[in-house]
Amino acid sequence: MGDIGKTASDIPARSWIDTWVPAAVQPYLRLARLDRPIGIWLLLFPCWWSLALAVPGALPDLRLLVLFAIGAVLMRAAGCTLNDIADRDFDTRVARTATRPIASGAIGVTRAAVFMCGLCLAALVVLLQFNGFAILLGASSLLLVAVYPFAKRVTDWPQAVLGLTFNWGALLGWAAVHGSLDWPAAALYVGGVLWTLGYDTVYAHQDKADDAIVGVRSTALRLGAMTGPWLWGLYGGALALFVAAGVLVGLGWPFYLGAALVGAHFARQIIRLDLDDPRQCLATFRSNRSVGWLLFAAIVLGQVAR
After folding, report:
1. What is the pLDDT of residues 146-172, one digit of tens each?
2. Structural fold of domain 4-9+17-305
3. So where are the chain's domains?
4. How far is it, in rounded angstroms, from Cα 44 to Cα 37?
5. What is the pLDDT of residue 159?
6. Which whole-number Å values give the CA distances from 60 to 68, 155, 170, 225, 291, in the listed order?
């Protein structure tokens, strides 16, 4: 197992939590990953893309943007808590995750479960602000949320399960506007799944040595040295489906310029990537926030210009 000091970690040595938050509350905020917001962004962007895609010739509804942002914070925190409860035995044996609150003993399982239930109730309040179809669609995502933490035990493709889960907002955003689903939302969703499968495979390369020892399965281990060619296919497929979604709703020319920039970002990620450098894998994974902003801006400007 790797040395903690030599392994890339997304757990900062010090953050705003240490400075501004009472000591008793700090483990809960770390459990929710609030000091590592990249997961919130990656969960939120498919929602925002979908909201922007669903309003022909107009800007997305600010109220819905805010509601989805709140929901993304809450559900990402709840999902991380469930994941850490399920993985507590694995986490103690993996260098990068050994200091997480449950694995380190800072929070017990019972308190973590109560915290998770509170987060889910708060997220339910947000979900109830939407139309009936969107409420049912959003509630149905809980099945994927519950399955994901256990996928790595039974399949080499847990990143695909994460993709299905993390991009549910691509369907939900459209449903919140229209009260139904249509092909543009479906194209956006499948494109998002491929995108997540790509960036989370890169993320998983940080832990491949420890995962092989403890018996955790991942696409990083499954694909190995073939990860690079697979990334070209995954990111290329994601971009094609994002463009297809834009074509289906008739977005204007700025969208295609933005999509080209997304494609350039994907290419840069793959060309520069060293899969044996955990810190670079983490930096590459985090850079997908730029993909999210580029595509969101492209859709918004494409709507205005149509």
Report:
1. 999 999 999 999 999 999 999 999 999
2. Tetracycline Repressor; domain 2 (1.10.357)
3. 4-9+17-305
4. 11
5. 97
6. 12, 38, 14, 41, 19
